[in-house]
Amino acid sequence: MSGTSEKKLVRIDVSSDTVCPWCFVGKKNLDKAIAASNDKYNFEIIWHPFQLNPDAPKEGIDKREFYRRKFGSQSERMEARMSEVFKNVGLEYSLSGLTGNTMDSHRLIYFARQQGLEKQHDLVEELNIGYFTQGKYIGDHKFLLESAAKVGIEGAEEFLKDPNSGLKEVQEELKTYSGNITGVPYYVINGNHKLSGGQPPEVFLRAFQVATT
């Protein structure tokens, strides 16, 4: 039997936004690829912020209304397409509830990383499940804190209460990791192998192989 010392390290830097459905689809497929190759690699996954709409209101706006304004007559077709894509990863896509500014969710994701990469990864999952399938609002502190509690993050309430906590760090990450990209999800594997979009698991598996040889 091979010991863990023989496993190769795969570091994945992911740029994503918490209101980007393709980012969640990509995460589900990435998780599948990780589960299928855990015997070969040790994984280090780090989530970085991206804001699709940095000027979105903090108080939130009805999702359907927002998409109708943004995409016009395309919005219904897009909703049907996302429902189909989500079904393929075993989820039910919902456009109920509000959308809006994602900065507080990114501050919380940054905070989670200080308590461990696994907690950060688990928090991203909780936020996505709530926002995309349960009609939760990504800017609602109650929802953010419930998600943090579920994955065992300590001190989240105190941290979120101060709007400046983690703000500088998130803004710096936005510059460093998102400054040169135009869309998300965006993955950098072992610092040099780059992928974008909600790729299927087999694309990730190939990328792990290429990045470690």
Automatic annotation (TrEMBL):
Residues 12-208 form the DSBA-like thioredoxin domain. GO terms for biological process: defense response to fungus. Gene3D superfamilies: Glutaredoxin (3.40.30.10). Transmembrane segments: none annotated. SUPFAM superfamilies: Thioredoxin-like. InterPro entries: DSBA-like_thioredoxin_dom, Thioredoxin-like_sf. GO terms for molecular function: oxidoreductase activity. It comes from the Eukaryota. This is DSBA-like thioredoxin domain-containing protein. It comes from Sphenostylis stenocarpa. The lineage of its organism: Eukaryota, Viridiplantae, Streptophyta, Embryophyta, Tracheophyta.
